[in-house]
Design brief:
Elements (H helix, E strand, L loop, with lengths): L2 H4 L7 H15 L14 E12 L8 E4 L6 H8 L2 E12 L2 E8 L4 E6 L6 H4 L3 H36 L1 H14 L1
Antiparallel strand pairs: 1-2, 1-3, 3-4, 4-5
Amino acid sequence: MNPAARTEDTGGKSFLGMEFLTWLWFASEQEAPPRLPDGRPVGVVIGERMVLGPGPGREGARITIRGPEADPPEARQALKRGKLVEVLRLGLELEGEEFWLTLEARSLGVSSLKPPPTMPEAEAGGDPRTDAAGRLLERVALISQALEAVEGLFTTFLRRRLQDPAALARGMRAWVAGG
């Protein structure tokens, strides 16, 4: 693929990914955590990397935020100027497990997924081959759980966006203005 083509909206739908990632940031600051379609709450924590870019149909530079401060003032100012989140590092807390991952708006692809640790080899206490297979299966299950959580959060976002888009927009505008 041509590197220049990667920066363009390949299907005209990256705005939805940008809105989703911006909503995740919004959701991370609400009193109640968002819930998956099955009702389970998911804690969302903004990580140490965020890229904000111009919204759909707008021109402008991208801003990359890195560092331990999850909500730097320049990111808030970028939101106020109409930028949306293009790349977001975030933590998800689901049923006592913490996952860290990076989401990209253009593809809604997950990268840099770090699931919680599996049982250490020393604690397994059985046949090393069986223990290794068990740890591998546990890791696969954790990765699957993280991907299902992202999918569930996207479904929750879409439902809110489609059911009452005006209320969602008002809430997010008030959040941006108040931040």
